[in-house]
Write a structure and sequence with these properties.
- It is a single chain.
- By secondary structure, the chain is mainly α.
- It has two domains: 1-74, Serine Threonine Protein Phosphatase 5, Tetratricopeptide repeat (Alpha Horseshoe); 77-157, Tetratricopeptide repeat domain (Serine Threonine Protein Phosphatase 5, Tetratricopeptide repeat, Alpha Horseshoe).
- 73% of the residues lie in helices and 5% in strands.
- The protein is built from eight helices and two strands; from the N terminus they run H-H-H-H-H-H-H-H-E-E.
- The protein has helices at 3-20, 24-37, 42-54, 58-71, 78-95, 99-112, 117-129, 133-142, and strands at residues 147-150, 153-156.
- A two-stranded antiparallel sheet has the order 1-2.
Length: 157
């Protein structure tokens, strides 16, 4: 094994140990050091994305998870992590009134995980806000909730 690869492995092991111990700034610096040396070090990119999610830097985490997905769509847990960060960003966008942005994130999740019931429900509710009632109701029915109609009222349960 050459010296450069051994050094990267040692740095990664140190980053991972610090990450587990919640020494996030140290771990982040070490992951970034590895990525400077070897920009395609997929493990460092993935774990840095997870670390940034923990630090609530969701847009940066999204970019890193997308990079991992682009390099290896079968990387362990990449779909779950990417869907989770998309869902967070969709909810943030929706709460901030950026409904079309939220819609794009929900659609990305449904592309990666079409059977995600929570996402189907959230997407359906969003579509109702966008006045796409028929499509929204269909997604809500697919999701984790049902719709109860009462005279003069509609509740999503």
């Amino acid at each position: 094994m050459n010296k450069k690869k051994q050094t990267i492995k040692e740095i990664f092991n140190s980053a991972f140990e610090n990450h587990k111990k919640n020494n996030l700034n140290i771990a982040e610096n070490l992951y970034r050091e590895i990525i400077k040396i070897k920009p395609d070090h997929i493990d460092s990119i993935f774990y840095l994305g997870g670390l940034l999610t923990k630090k609530r830097e969701f847009h940066k985490a999204k970019e890193l998870f997308e990079k991992v997905f682009e390099k290896n769509p079968k990387y362990p847990n990449i779909n779950n992590n990417l869907c989770a960060v998309y869902k967070i960003l969709a909810n943030i966008s929706s709460k901030n009134g950026k409904l079309l942005e939220a819609k794009k994130f929900f659609e990305k999740i449904l592309t990666l995980d079409p059977n995600n019931l929570d996402t189907a429900h959230g997407y359906g509710v969003l579509l109702l806000k966008l006045n796409q009632h028929s499509k929204g109701l269909n997604y809500i029915r697919k999701g984790t909730s049902f719709i109860r109609f009462t005279p003069g009222d509609c509740k999503i349960i």
